[in-house]
Structure formats: C-alpha cells, structure tokens
Design brief:
CATH topology of the largest domain: Elongation Factor Tu (Ef-tu), domain 3
Number of strands: 12
Distance between the termini: 36 Å
Mean pLDDT: 86
Low-confidence stretches: 1-7, 79-98, 105-113
Strand order of the largest sheet: 4-3-7-1-2-6-5
Number of domains: 2
Helix content: 10-25%
Order of helices and strands: EEEEEEHEEHEEEHE
Strand content: 25-35%
Number of helices: 3
Bound molecules: flavin-adenine dinucleotide
Largest sheet: 7 strands, antiparallel
Shape: globular
Radius of gyration: 19 Å
Length: 273
C-alpha cells in the first residue's frame, strides 16, 4: 500500500467551516467541518493531515499547525455530520459567512442533507495547557467559524512483506493511529499502545471499534517496550507524538530492534516546552 501524496496540485489556503463540535473529554475535542471541493484533491493516505492557519498571538503573524484528517466524508458519499451526536455551540445566525466558507445560515448546519455537494471531515484537538493558537482556537470554535487549510507534502508507505505492525502514539496522534489501523490490510496483526496521563483518557477512543485492542500507558519508558519482539525483516514500526516518546522509540529501533529505515515511520508531533 504505497500512497504518495501530491498526485494532484497542492491545495493551499482552502476555507472550511465548523459544522459541529463534540467534546469527548474536557481536554479533547472533535470538530466536524464542511467545505467544497477539498477531499477529491487530497491523497487521504493513512494518517494524512492538513495544516490549519490560525491568527498568531496578540494579532501577530498567522501560524500554521498540523492536524490529522479524521473520517473524510466526500460529497455524495452520504451522511451529514458524524454519528454520536454533537453540540451545536452557536445559533445558525452566528454562522460565519466571510472568507468563502460554505454558508450554513440557511442550511441549518448539522442536519444538512446528504447529497448537498459538501465535503465533510473532522479534526480532533488535544486542548492542552498552556494553550497555543490551535488549541485556543479549537476550545472556542463555534458553528459557522471558518478557518483555512493547506495540504502539505506527505508520503506514507508500508513495506513488503509485512508481518506485524507495532504502533505507538500519544493523544495528539490518536487520530493518526486510528487512521493507520483502518488502512492496514486485514491479514496484518497489529499491536497498538496509546500514551496519555489523563485518568479519563479512554474516552477519546471508541472501545467498540473492530480491530486490535489498544493498550494504554500513563507515560512511556524504554522498559515498557522491552517485551516488543519486533522482527526487523518482516515487521513495521510506527510511532508519533511528543518528541521524547519518539526519541525513546527511535533509540530502540536503531539499537536493539535493528530496524531498517523502510520498516519504521517515526514522527514528532509536538515538543514539550
Ligand atoms: C503530522 C502531524 C499531525 C498532527 N495531528 C494532530 C491531531 O490530529 N490532533 C492533535 O491534537 N495534535 C496533532 N498534532 C500535534 C499538533 O500539531 C501540536 O500539538 C501543535 O503544537 C498544537 O499547536 P498549538 O498552537 O495548540 O500549541 P503550540 O503553540 O504549538 O504550543 C503551545 C504550548 O503547548 C504545548 N503543547 C503543544 N501540543 C501539545 C499537546 N498535544 N499536549 C500538551 N502540550 C502541548 C507546547 O509544548 C507549548 O508549550 C499533529 C502534529 C503533526 C506534525
């Protein structure tokens, strides 16, 4: 499954409109967006992401942050909004109509009919403290708010042959982990670990979803991975999240596991201050 991104021209500065907000926990929020003509132009490879543009602090220069594309629902695929119900945080009269986003004012937001020609997708935000521009924006997002997204260069490839997949993520990479699990061939056995210190962390993960059970850790040390018997000839390792987590995994991949480069995909998603 090799899915290089960028087979179509890159999409830059595309408006997307908030349609619904779901609070999975007090510190983790899924936001559904509607837009026009976005998804058909993206590669939608496993764990693909968008760059979102946000106002900088105190009116400073705009900044960009990366967020994984969740549940892309192209126009015509049916199903407005996401199952499970969400919260309409604002009346439709507050719908933002500036900046070229779809106009929700007359459509009624969450109950727009399937076949309305709109693409839908979600992003999931860790609402961390101290907040940065992205988490601050997400924690205040309201129906009709418009942000602009860009499609960064992205490459994802699974090696062949593929024995087992060993997957490790923190909460910022939970959407990416889910996407990878969704895309793995059924015959591939996967072992997945999520790392998060919150007591209610399991609420960000649908425990009923098919596929491998995800094990949770409050924090990660190299000792936690001592039992990972990774085969460097057949297996594949993916890890994403805070830099120290990725560093721990990288040390093991280069050291005792002896994994070739094409059998590992390790990516820092954020850096602790
Ligand atoms: C490819 C890719 C995909 C990503 N997908 C997602 C995703 O789907 N969901 C998601 O929530 N994040 C995701 N991230 C991580 C997200 O881009 C970063 O967490 C980003 O720094 C958040 O921006 P901010 O403006 O909120 O905070 P910043 O301005 O970047 O940082 C402000 C402060 O918050 C701290 N901080 C930043 N992120 C976190 C965090 N997650 N937890 C605790 N403290 C933090 C920083 O250390 C700093 O002190 C992804 C990153 C990459 C590279």
């Amino acid at each position: 499954m090799t899915q290089p991104a960028g087979s179509s021209p890159r999409l830059i500065d595309h408006p997307v409109t908030v349609e619904r907000v779901h609070d999975l926990t007090a510190w983790y929020r899924r936001i559904d967006f509607v837009t026009v003509g976005l998804l058909s132009r993206l590669s939608l490879a496993p764990a693909a992401y968008l760059m979102i543009a946000l106002p900088g602090a105190a009116g400073g220069r705009p900044v960009q942050r990366a967020y994984t594309i969740v549940s892309p629902r192209p126009a015509g695929a049916g199903g407005a909004g996401q199952a499970g119900g969400g919260t309409d945080l604002a009346g439709v009269s507050e719908a933002g109509q500036a900046d070229g986003g779809p106009d929700l004012a007359e459509g009624g937001g969450p109950d727009l009919a399937a076949g309305d020609g709109l693409d839908r997708f979600s992003l999931e935000f860790v609402l961390h403290q101290p907040a940065g521009p992205a988490s601050a924006w997400a924690s205040q997002a309201r129906l009709g708010d418009v942000i602009r997204v860009s499609d960064p260069p992205y490459h994802f490839a699974l090696p062949q042959p593929l024995g087992r997949a060993w997957l490790l993520a923190d909460s910022s990479a939970a959407p990416a982990l889910r996407s990878i699990l969704d895309h793995l061939p059924q015959a591939v056995e996967a072992r997945a670990v999520l790392v998060d210190p919150h007591p209610d962390r399991q609420l960000i993960w649908d425990q009923t979803r098919p596929g491998p059970t995800v094990a949770w850790l409050s924090q990660l040390t190299a000792a936690d991975l001592a039992g990972w018997a990774i085969d460097p000839v057949r297996d594949w390792l993916w890890a994403a999240g805070q830099r120290d987590l990725v560093k721990t995994v990288r040390g093991l991949a280069r050291g005792p596991w002896g994994l070739p480069r094409d059998r590992q995909h390790l990516q820092t998603y954020w850096i602790a201050a």
